[in-house]
Amino acid sequence: MSRRTIGSVRTDLAIEAVEELQTQTDQVPPGVLMDQYQSFPGVHVTHVDVLDESAAQNMGKPIGTYITIESQALKKRNRTVQDRLSETLSSCLQKMLGKGSNDAPILVVGLGNENATPDALGPRVVNLLLVTRHIQEFVPEDLAGKLRSVAAISPGVLGTTGIESEEIIQGILSQIEVGAVVAIDALAAREVNRLFTTIQLTDTGIHPGAGVGNNRPPIDEKTLGVPVIALGIPSVVHAMTIASQSVGILIDKLRSSDPAYAQLGELGAAERGQMIQDALSPVVGDMVVTPKEIDLIMREAAQVVAKGINSAIHADWDEESIAEMMA
Amino acid sequence: MSRRTIGSVRTDLAIEAVEELQTQTDQVPPGVLMDQYQSFPGVHVTHVDVLDESAAQNMGKPIGTYITIESQALKKRNRTVQDRLSETLSSCLQKMLGKGSNDAPILVVGLGNENATPDALGPRVVNLLLVTRHIQEFVPEDLAGKLRSVAAISPGVLGTTGIESEEIIQGILSQIEVGAVVAIDALAAREVNRLFTTIQLTDTGIHPGAGVGNNRPPIDEKTLGVPVIALGIPSVVHAMTIASQSVGILIDKLRSSDPAYAQLGELGAAERGQMIQDALSPVVGDMVVTPKEIDLIMREAAQVVAKGINSAIHADWDEESIAEMMA
Amino acid sequence: MSRRTIGSVRTDLAIEAVEELQTQTDQVPPGVLMDQYQSFPGVHVTHVDVLDESAAQNMGKPIGTYITIESQALKKRNRTVQDRLSETLSSCLQKMLGKGSNDAPILVVGLGNENATPDALGPRVVNLLLVTRHIQEFVPEDLAGKLRSVAAISPGVLGTTGIESEEIIQGILSQIEVGAVVAIDALAAREVNRLFTTIQLTDTGIHPGAGVGNNRPPIDEKTLGVPVIALGIPSVVHAMTIASQSVGILIDKLRSSDPAYAQLGELGAAERGQMIQDALSPVVGDMVVTPKEIDLIMREAAQVVAKGINSAIHADWDEESIAEMMA
Amino acid sequence: MSRRTIGSVRTDLAIEAVEELQTQTDQVPPGVLMDQYQSFPGVHVTHVDVLDESAAQNMGKPIGTYITIESQALKKRNRTVQDRLSETLSSCLQKMLGKGSNDAPILVVGLGNENATPDALGPRVVNLLLVTRHIQEFVPEDLAGKLRSVAAISPGVLGTTGIESEEIIQGILSQIEVGAVVAIDALAAREVNRLFTTIQLTDTGIHPGAGVGNNRPPIDEKTLGVPVIALGIPSVVHAMTIASQSVGILIDKLRSSDPAYAQLGELGAAERGQMIQDALSPVVGDMVVTPKEIDLIMREAAQVVAKGINSAIHADWDEESIAEMMA
User: Could you tell me whether strands B228-238 and B288-290 are parallel, antiparallel, or unpaired per DSSP bridges?
Assistant: First the structure.
């Protein structure tokens, strides 16, 4: 789980960064293109393009494309909508992958800690993928070259391996041919209602701690030399974010209810942010906010993502004939 | 996980209820006795006795004894202090159990949902207990009557069984002889720094939703007809609680920093509570705050509790000779 | 996991008991009716009716009906056939349940140990059921009485609870109204190719250790006072069984290959069984034979069974509208 | 899990290969040195040195040292003996590591599939290690150079990653400095009583399928360029092995009981092996034999191994001060 900070609140989602800037200026920030549509009833897709360096600075997000797929289906355990979500994810991912050569082997990387549920999205998805790199030689001749080669790895987290994920991936790329990397990671959101309702796809890769003085290496096309698509679902809001938002909401409420509280508005955002940080940080520490039934929801989320990836990559195949071949 | 409410914040801990009242009046509430000591360096024990009905109303806790054992050992993974914690728990539990006959069979009940990590304390502890009811007949004759009979069950939660835990326990008591019940449950705290740093023991049993209009049946001596000791560790703070506290802390800070904010103090606690509830409830919903590494910490917590219970109940035995006999 | 013995080999499957007797006499045993059909391509159903006490003695199985559903789908991870398997299971179960009143509440019991994978079928299925007993009051009025009331429990195993499952079920029946019990359990087979390819349904309940000097109480209509349907899937073959079979196969092979070995045939089955028991029991002990990927296969098996039960019980409902109501 | 074959039975244990040869010739095979002692009551240590290529061919094991530590403690859950086992493992491992430079960083590799219990030893051990490579810069100055640098990875299995473990390890070695590799893996034994009672350490690395026409790359000093110590515990016996042994035992029994069966002895071992293979292979297939409580025993085994490795590598440190530093 990487993270970044806007004011005092952290988000990994480009769409939340846009919304934050929009609340301040009432318009889409300069240098940013935004486009929205429904792929299915109940499934909303938003494209955000960060066009230049100035917009990137402003957003706290690198230049590139960010696709957000939104739906309540994961949380509500609605299978029908979950299948539509997988299908939407599949077609968005195909478009991003399509920029590279179509038959290059793909390496899917499941970032995060399998043994810490809120951080386990990546490894759980990897466990559900149809991996085919090692069975290429068993593909019947008339189909040769049609079953896309996929490898997958869950490199673990720095705290339990002592090795940066980026180092492990670099190492694998030094040994095997890879055309593109798809990196899966659990994300941190700013809004509680984003938890398990949003999937973000981006061609900018993963930038841990961008802008927060964190020197951990990015996992992107520049460092790895091949296209890197990052795919994530927010699973936590930092408790500090909740604390900070609560204060903001109450201040707004007080100001609108009684002119005597008008002066609260004079507190600048930055100043307020610092005061909140100082006051609350010792109280809420490193805690995270999650749904209590996170074990169950995470399982459903992993299934939806894995189904979307399998279908995007092995578009011309059905799962059963692959399973048969691997048996 | 049961819960109750103080102002707008929920706590299952008697010690937090006392603290809340103390901050208002600067003294231990009337009808409440409180006693504190260290059992070991780094392990603090507090006895709270709620003596009469008026104190019980005031505290929102039934008449009875509440023992709180506090230590940073669970979170810090310090084995040495964890062992001291188990030992302290063991001797506190022995004292509470001692009120009943010493050789009566004990039923340990692991409340909560094994498949939702923050709620899994009870079932995890049950999995680690030395259960002996079924091997009484194999005990060597010279030791007969010395190995205490222990049974244990994890009844599941209403949402997955459709049956109240209390009904299942009642049912078991109708079939087998039981001298006392020890009920283990994950708790909700008000303060983040209570999470996995506090063990509460009480002879009042478990009262789900006492005072919050919740009609679920209590699990206590009155309903079951045998003494019921409840043992819990706080594993979550409700996100609503964090939100509410944050606001309180900032208001205090503002008031003390600038006389212009003095009027904020005029907002009564109840009024403030309602305003916070209205404003924040849609934002934070049913979310809970937990440590991100909860999977790991929960495992350590279950081990400490199980070790304490095993040692309290099978005081004259070592684990290995029991394990040998059960093999 | 219960078990019984035929000669020196153990099986929980009525169909294997019939087959054993058939190999000796080349015909269906007297007092036994047998009927076979395909419900779908790749899904075979066999009804075995044990009609009288003499047949029951002969078979080592109580008088009653045994339905066996066979398919390679669980092991081969073929979703299409898995769905047909669920559908077949659903209609067989409905017929058995239909003998009782249609609207009586059902208690599903998941026998076995959740934390020992080969024994975890029951608890895993229970975790996937749509339990409705506690939401009856929330059913919209026009649908009242149409959503069947279902409760479910995983009572654990004697070794970890110290209480017989039968005692726990009796206890629950003393507290809540139940029209029928469906008991799920992992079974032991005699043939390796039965593992995870067979589902057995029977109206005779569960008889742990019938005929092997085991005094554990049965879970059946006679003890509980309500109809008890047992549903199981074989997940292990006892290593002793494999050992014994291997010897039998080799002896047959030797005899048919060389007349000099003819005398081996003179060794009676019982004598041979005892010799094998004496020689091999110290070597193979209590070990069980399972597929190496049992964790994965068990998950699929639990899903197929849960889907079949949900569909049999809530025939007029779809999963989503129930999930919506429970949210 | 790698494997090799002796006659028709597979073993990964050098000590079983020696025993097999000893039963044929009644002496330690030429070119093999063998030495035995007790490190503690109940803990037996055997050194087997394979000295030359002819002995290696004979044994089916590469030239090198094999240390076997034997004890019933893992299966019997005896903590006291488990601690002695960890201590013995620690000192044996220190000796093997000592051949290399003492302060070189160590990479521990957990081979096998975390999600298939019998194959999960490696990943489970990795999860319990004290990994320090990433905290070297935080070590207090006066202790600098004294906390040994350890990294660890669970590369997954070919079937779920599509990448050979050897490729992943090679990749990591291309990125980070490593002085020695310790590779943990679950093993296959020939004798059931070896399951979870034996730890094997060897400086020859891992040779999957040596001698069985399997071309998977070895993980050893020759391929990796640094010393590779392999550490394993047998968790399965192949069902085929059990079948084959059973036949052998019965034949021996028959021959010794009745001269009429003497001719059975004329069946040569190879011939008998082939006949058994042909007759039984369709029956027992790819099944494995394990203890039914494997989930529990595997957990204990992983703890014992992890404790031994942690203690061997961080000899001058206690766990708590490392944990403190990492917090």
Answer: antiparallel
